[in-house]
Structure formats: structure tokens, C-alpha cells
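Running log. JK asked me to keep both predictions on one page so they can be read side by side. First protein, sequence followed by its C-alpha cells:
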Amino acid sequence: MKTPRPPAPRAAAAAPPWPGPRPPAPAVAEARDTSLVLRLGTAQTLAWASSYYLPAMLAQPMARELGLATGWVYGAFSLALVVSALVGPRAGHWIDRHGGRPVLATSSLLFALALAVLALAPNAALLLLGWALLGLAMGSGLYEAAFAALVYLKGPQARSAITGITLIAGFASTVGWPLSAALEQTLGWRAAVGGWAALHLLLGLPLNLSLPRGHAAGVADVAAQAAAPPRPLEPTAAPEPAAEGGRLMLALLAFVFAATWFISTAIAVHLPVLLMASGAPLAAAVAAGALVGPAQVGGRVLEFLGLRRQHPLRTARWAAAAHPLGALALLLLGPAAAPAFALLHGAGNGILTIAKGTLPLALFGPAGYGRRQGWLMLPARLAQAAAPLAFGLALQAWGVHSLWLCIGLAGAALAALAWIRPPPGG
């Protein structure tokens, strides 16, 4: 009698296919994130240095050669800010649909074109056209677009990357002002502007083209996304939350961004004159003003190292309180408080720059982020365009007491932030 053979071992059941890309090892993922932040941060440094920080060094030589008042060039810059505000929502909508790579790469070409027009402009009309084109580039190529690109790639986990690129681009003025000044003094303002245009083609465009193509909003959520029923890819309107509470939060947040950007731009343009109006001599005013940049970077480092464990709403409240505290110190103590004012204003402004990207993400999620961000920042860009003239007139009329205007706006922004409540579990 034959001994029955034991049944052959059954083949192990094949593992179900991973419904999407397998997550990379933690070390590989961290290296990719670091590379992404370095590339995007470098491109943002170039974009800010060659647009927002351009007039400070080149407005006077531009105006002098073309026979214009310097204020005319600053007015053209305000036009660029208005154009960028109007472009922002559409650029964000495109990023929501197609990712940041094509939009940011296109912005590099727009920067190069706009700067080339400026460099070759023989008269005021073409100079105005160049600034308008620069507004198109700014609306599709500065922080809001970069933040939307990161959210498209990383979803709710984009906060650290947003902080990282603001840390790098926080040195845009440190790089941009000396480089623009050196080129202008040696080769003239046209060569300086043309040099920035060339950098966008040789450096900015390759960096933006190197961004990932695919949508990877958190590989840990891929399975859940695959199992979930299909849903519309984009919101049907700019303020996506349909509930009245959601719309109110959007309105409050838009006001906060507009108020804080007005303050930031007003102080950036008029800080030395403001400090001298408080009684500080020129050398002391310049020395105190030089503290703002390092304080901004310091605030962002603080956010990256520790404050990111807090809900962005809490850090935004703390940051919004920094400017009025410094302003009150300057009003009460006089020029002795100028360094404290510069440090508090700079640190708060640095953290608020991050909050402009992370707070909408924390409150409303990644869906439709780019378009929503464009609408949220539209009032802020318009306030930014109005700030130099409006605060300049206040400074002429009231001197250092024009700070009460900023204190009032900051107080209203704090009240708006106090009214906003984080979502459950936030």
C-alpha cells in the first residue's frame, strides 16, 4: 500500500498590488524633500531678488536716464503688484489642475521677458509695459505659486517644506540688493536688469523644470484615496467652504493677510525715515533697520525648529502681536527702542510669511488650495500696492505717530485671528 504523498504546499497568496507608488524609504524621502526645498527655495530667491527688491536699487537710475520722476517708477511697480494680484487666482487654479512645474517654469520665461523689456525700454511707455509683464510673472511665480506647488506635491504634509523655502528665500534682499547695486555701478542699470533676465533663463528655468511632474499628496494616503469614491478635482467657486462659517473664515483670513502685508510693505519702504522721525540719527536708523532681515530669518528658524508643532493659527496670533508691541515700545520709549522695534517687526513678519501658506492649508485642507490662495492674497496684493503711498502720506502728516495706523491694523488683524477657530482636532 502506497503511502499517500503529503499535499504540495500551496503557493502563498500574491500580495495585492499597491494601489499607487510604493512609499520610498524614510531616508530617501527626506533626501528628496531636501532637494525639492533647495531647488524651489533657490528659484524663489531669484524671483524675489529680481522683482520685489529691484526698485530699491534701480528705480533712481531708471528714472534719471529716462527723464522721469522716481515716484513714477515706484508707481509702475505698484502697477506690477496690482497685475500680480489679478493673476494670482488663475495661476493657483492652474497649479491645482496641473501642478507647479508648468506654471513656475512659465513664470521663469515671463520674468526673463519682462526684465528684457525693462532693460531695453527707450521710453516711459515701454518701461510701463515691462513692469506690467513683471506683474504677470510675480502673480504666477512668487510665494503663493510656490506654496501651491508644494501642496500639490505633498498635500497636508507641506508645512515643513513651505517653511524651508521661506528660510532660503528670506535672503533674497541680502543677495539681490548688493548684486543689483554692484552691476548698476559697474555696467549700468540696463545691464543689471539684463543680468537678472539671463539668470532666470540659465538658473530659474532649469530649477523650476526640475520639479516633479506627478501628484503625490502624501503616499501614506494613496490606498485611502484609491478606495474613496471619485470627487470633483476643483472647487466650484473661489471660497470653497459652502457653510457661512467657512465663508466668514475666508473673509477674515483675507483681511488678516491684507492688513499684515500693508504693514510689512509700509515699514519696508519707509523704515529709515520712520526711525529718524522717532528721533534716531541716520546712522542709528540704518543700523536698526539692518536688523529686520536677520530677525525675519530668525523668526522662520524658530518656526521650523519648534513652533511648527503648534497649530498655525496660534503661531499667526503670536506673530501678529509682535509688530504692535514693537511699535508701542518705539512710541513710548523713543529711539532707544528702535532695535527692539526692528527685531519684533522682523520676527513677526517672518513667521507671518509662513502662516500665509500654512494657515489656509490647516484650516481648509489641500483640495483647491492654489485657487483659494490666489483669492485670499488678492486683497493683500492690492493693499501692498497702496501701502508705500498711503503710509508715506501718513508719515509726512503725523511723523512717528503714523505708527498708530499700523497698530490699529495689527489690532484688527489680531481680533480677526482670535475670531477664527481651528477645525476639530486642529
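And the second, directly underneath as requested:
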Amino acid sequence: MSSTGISSRSHATREATITTTMTAPPLATAPGPLDRVRTLPSLTGLRWATAMLIFGHHIMAVQYIAGTAGDVWSFVFEAGKTGVTLFFILSGFVLAWGYKPQQSARSFWWHRVARIYPLHVVGVGLALLAAATLVPEIRTDGAAPLMANVFLVNGWVPDWWQAGNPASWSLVCEAFFYLGFPLLIRPLVRASNRALTVVVVASLVLVALAPQIAALAPGVLSSASTPLLRLPEFVVGMTVALMLKRGRWMPLRLSIALPLAVAGYALSEAPMLPGTDVHPGLAATVGFYALLIASLANADARGRSTFLARPLWQELGRVSFAFYLVHLLVIASVSSGWPGGHPELPWQRALLLALAAFGIALAIAWAMHRLVEIPAQRWLLQYDRSRVAARPASTLVAEDARA
């Protein structure tokens, strides 16, 4: 398997599942404060849609499809790597939307550990198994990069960014975002709407400049995987959520936001400014994705939930984190019997192979979600003393199983 088959900027993290149990406010046509709205089911469904973009991108990267059909697939899914961008924005949005001023930083961090770490450890174990058997190309050389991945710091060393489980590089970024969230959210909550607008604009400028910044520090930073350079995407999500919650900004209608998001998807492949590494297309991608998330959230909050809020999409959205962690391992394992791990089959056979990989990955993800993610999260959250002191344990288990 070529290095590009595993090292594309795809993934995804994944953020807290937004539940569907609370009643949305009545239909409204004008902005109004949304502080009491806690559930945004369309964003849970969006997680699965985004995971499918990433899955399609990796089918392309591992070269399942040959010929003209493969070229068409590549044209459609080359930009699927921006699924990680959408996940980062969504992560910031969800955390800021659900922000509780009374929650301590320690409690917040423990909730994040309970949310991602059990599945991360299982994902690393599965990656080691795949590397020892079917996919030796992803084998990690040395204990140091492997342990760096286990502790979610390997992304700070460009040569280690896909050590351990190749897909978990995005969790390194998420871990950094989580670490900084309690420090970032407080000034943002106090900021005026004008100041929040400035933060969004400044963050988009930093997104465009990230490749140039990385180019000026070769071997030290990567615009794809260095957490610090991906932070502006997370901050955009946070800021847009706060602006929407205040009810002083009405997002675009979904009928407009969705085409803009598709345009942003395409613009991620636009060329950089001549003679530079500045990428305004990426800034457009982040901006348009943020508008889509805000439009979906606004629809839910005002009683106009979208098809993404339907039960099937909710269940798939809850499984999306586990699916993300294993899908690339499965894609590579299924294709390992072909030379170089690249099947390059006629589209009919390639489609069957891709469906097989999808089915296996989904089955493993469902098992991980049910047997590891939910019980481990419940067990770990018992040790959040501040939360246990505030509510009965039975309430906490029911609530955090969905968080």
C-alpha cells in the first residue's frame, strides 16, 4: 500500500452525541435566545454523513476502483478528507452549545477522557493486530511513537502523526482542543457579538495561512496534523455556537447553507495563491461548513428538525466514532490480498468489495459502541465527584450514555 493510502487528511473525531429526548421549542421565524435548548439531533446525524465522506475518501486512497469509474470516484471523494474539518468545527460547536459555567475544568476533562479514550485504546489494539497480520505497512517502528499515540501526543511530531492507529491522528488534535476549551470558552462567553465576529474572521484567516505557516517551519509543523494549526477550525465552531445561542444572529436557511457547504467542499481543492502556500479555499470550506452546522442547529432548536434527526441517522451517528476508528483498518485489511494492497478492480467488483468493507467496519463499530464505549463511559463517569455530588447516580448514567 502506498503511503498516500493511509496518510490522507481524513478522519475524524467525533464529538459528543447530541440527544433527542428534550422537546424543542415551538416554530419561530425570528431570532430569539436559545440558551434553554439542549438537544440538536440533526448534528448527530451529520456525524454519520461526514463519516461517509471519509469512508469514500479512503476507498479512493486505497485504490479499490480502476479505470474511468475510479477517476470519477476520485473526483467526487478527493475532498472527502475535509470530513475531518467538519468534525473539528462540529466538535467546537457542540461543546460550546452545551457549555455549563458551573462545570469545573477537571470535570470537563474527565468527561472528555470517558468519551474518547476507551475506544481509542481498543482502536490502537486493533491497529497493532492488523499491522502484525494483514497490513504490515502500518506497523509502527519503535515504542516511542506507539506510546505517543496511546497518550495522544504523536501529532506534535510530524514523522509520528500516524503511529499506532493511523486514523487516531485527529484525536490528538481533539485532545489538544479539549485541553484548551475551559480556557477559551470563558472569554468567548463574555465577548460581545462584534468581538465574536472578529474571532471568526481572524480564525478563518489563520486557516488560510496555516499551510504557509507550516512551510516556514519545515519538519516542525504540519498544516494537516499539528493540533495548533487545526485549532482555528475548532474555535470557529465554538464561536458560531455562542452567536447562535444568543439569538441575535439568524443563520442562512438550509436550502442556501447546504449548496454553500457543497461549494466549500469543492473549494478545498482550489489552488493556493500563486507563489505562496496561502489557501483561501480552505477558509471558504471552514466558513461554509460552519454555516451548515449553524443552519441545522437552528432548524432543530426552532422545531424544524431535518431528516438527519430521524432515528436511523441518530443510531448511525452514535456509532460514527467507533466506525471512524476502525474503517481504515478494515478497508486496508480487506484489500490486503491484492498486490500492494490496491485492488484496482472494475467498478462492479470494486463496489462489492467496498460494501463488504463497509459492512465489516459497521459491525465492528456497533460491537465496540455497545460493548466498550457505553459501559466504559458509564464506569468512568462514576468517578466524576463533582457530578455525582450534584445528581443521583442513576440520572448520570442515563444522561452520560448519550453524551
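Observation for JK regarding the second prediction: The chain has one domain: 12-22+37-400.
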